[in-house]
Amino acid sequence: MLRRVCVFCGSSPGTNGLYREVAQTVGRLLSQRGLELVYGGGNVGLMGAVADACLQEGGRVIGVIPEALRQKELAHTGLTELRVVSTMHERKALMADLSDAFIALPGGYGTWDEFCEILTWSQLGIQRKAHALLNVNGYYDPLLAMADRAVAEGFLRDVHRASLLSDDDPARLLDRLSSYSAPFVDKWGNPAQR
After folding, report:
1. What backbone torsions phi and psi does residue 186 show, to the nearest 5 degrees?
2. Which are the contacts of 171, defined by CB distance < 8 A and separation ≥ 6?
3. Are 118 and 102 in contact (CB under 8 A)?
4. pLDDT tens digits for the chain (194 residues)?
């Protein structure tokens, strides 16, 4: 059952105002659907936009931030709950534990790192939660093309490529996350442990 959705996204707003608008849309939709937002705990960029929109709509927001970033005054002080951890590794692990599904909005290295770790855990059978790219303005087209090439070159299995959901519409993407059913196949094609 989908109760909490983790959103990975940029701590910068990007150069296209559409990214901020879509982040706000995601925050509002999560609240309207009774879903809690889990995210990186920041008050800047797309991170702040998605959190503020969810809160303004009456939603619950759980932020997870390392102490080093909290000390730089990047932490959002108006969240439902802010969990402060010691390291980035702890942050990713706690966000994964708290969440039932994952969405990556546009972002840079940090966003990609967080999302790719979730993809890897899925491929290895460590977790079976839905994961998706919100492909705003074709932002993730190159990553999706790279995944297709990895299949063509024999580095990624079709079943694992198919588990990577993507859409350019936030509402439709949330619908797909809600109905996601992970295959019981590990990286090497064996039935995954249940």
Report:
1. -90, -175
2. 29
3. yes
4. 899 999 999 999 999 999 999 999 999 999 999 999 999 999 999 999 999 999 999 999 999 999 999 888 799 999 999 999 999 999 999 999 999 999 999 999 999 999 999 999 998 888 899 999 999 999 999 999 999 999 999 999 999 999 999 999 999 999 999 999 887 666 666 655 44
* pTM across the whole model: 0.93
Owner of token pair 């996350």 = 177
To which residue do tokens 């759980």 refer? 62
The 3-state secondary structure of the chain reads CCCEEEEECCCCCCCCHHHHHHHHHHHHHHHHCCCEEEECCECCHHHHHHHHHHHHCCCCEEEEEEHHHHHCCCECCCCCEEEEECCHHHHHHHHHHHCCEEEECCCCHHHHHHHHHHHHHHHCCCCCCEEEEECHHHCCHHHHHHHHHHHHCCCCCHHHHHCEEEECCHHHHHHHHHCCCCCCECCCCCECCC
